[in-house]
Design goal:
6 helices; binds zinc ion; globular; alpha+beta
Length: 214
C-alpha cells in the first residue's frame, strides 16, 4: 500500500461511481500511473511518481461518456501540480511580503513562469465581489475577517474561496477535504464536467452549491 492508501492496480471499490451522464453503475476500465506534485502532511511539496488513476466504463451502449477518468482525492484534470500546490504557492506569493516569483518557485519545486501562470489563473477564477456576495448570501456574518491592506487580487480570491468552501460545507455541500480553491473546482468538475484550464484562459467558477457565481 502506498501513502494514498491504495495500491496500484487494486480497485478501491468493487464497482466504480455511477456514470456522470446516465447515472448507471458500470465497470472499472483499467488505470494509469501518474506523477503528481502534492502538498504533504507537513505542508511541504512532495513529488509522487506512481499515483494510480483509474478509469471507468459505462455499460449503456450509446452513452456519450463511454469511459472516463476517476480522479483520486486532490487530483484534477491536466495538472501535474495539484491545485493544493497552486493554492499554497499563490497564498505564499500574495500574502507573504517577502516572497518573490523566484523564492516561491524554489519552495514549490517549479518554474517561476508556472507561478506567474498560477497567479493570473487564480485572479481569473471569480471576481472577489461575486465571491463576497455568495459568502454573505450563505451567512450574513460569514465573510472572512477584513482583508489585510494591499492584498493582491489572487490572494483575495484565495481567501474568499476558502471562506466560501467553509460555508458550503456547513450547509452540507459535499466538498472534498483540502483548500477551498481545489475543493470548489473539483466539485464543479464532478457536477458539470467543467475544467478550469491553466493555459487556455480558464472558465471562471460558474456555480457552487447550486448558486451561480456573479
Ligand atoms: Zn453512461
Amino acid at each position: 500500500m502506498d501513502s494514498l492508501g491504495t495500491s496500484a492496480g487494486c480497485k478501491q471499490e468493487l464497482r466504480p461511481p455511477p456514470c456522470p451522464a446516465c447515472g448507471v453503475v458500470g465497470w472499472w476500465n483499467g488505470w494509469v500511473l501518474v506523477a503528481q506534485m502534492v502538498v504533504d502532511a507537513a505542508g511541504v511539496a512532495e513529488r509522487l511518481v506512481e499515483v494510480p488513476r483509474h478509469r471507468a466504463r459505462c455499460k449503456v451502449p450509446d452513452c456519450p461518456y463511454g469511459s472516463w477518468t476517476i480522479y483520486e482525492a486532490g487530483g484534477y484534470p491536466h495538472r501535474a501540480f495539484t491545485l493544493a500546490v497552486a493554492t499554497a504557492a499563490i497564498a505564499e506569493l500574495t500574502l507573504d511580503a517577502e516572497a518573490t516569483l523566484t523564492s516561491v518557485a524554489r519552495h514549490w519545486d517549479c518554474d517561476r513562469r508556472t507561478v506567474a501562470r498560477w497567479r493570473t489563473w487564480v485572479a481569473g477564477i471569480a471576481a472577489p465581489a461575486a465571491l463576497a456576495k455568495l459568502c454573505s448570501h450563505l451567512d450574513p456574518d460569514g465573510l472572512p475577517a477584513p482583508e489585510p491592506e494591499g492584498v493582491a487580487t489572487p490572494g483575495l480570491v484565495l481567501l474568499l474561496l476558502e471562506c466560501l468552501a467553509r460555508l458550503l460545507r456547513v450547509h452540507g455541500v459535499p466538498l472534498e477535504a483540502g483548500p477551498g480553491l481545489g475543493a470548489l473546482l473539483r466539485h464543479q468538475f464532478e457536477r458539470f464536467r467543467v475544467v478550469s484550464w491553466l493555459t487556455r484562459g480558464s472558465p471562471a467558477l460558474l456555480v457552487v452549491g447550486g448558486m451561480a457565481v456573479g
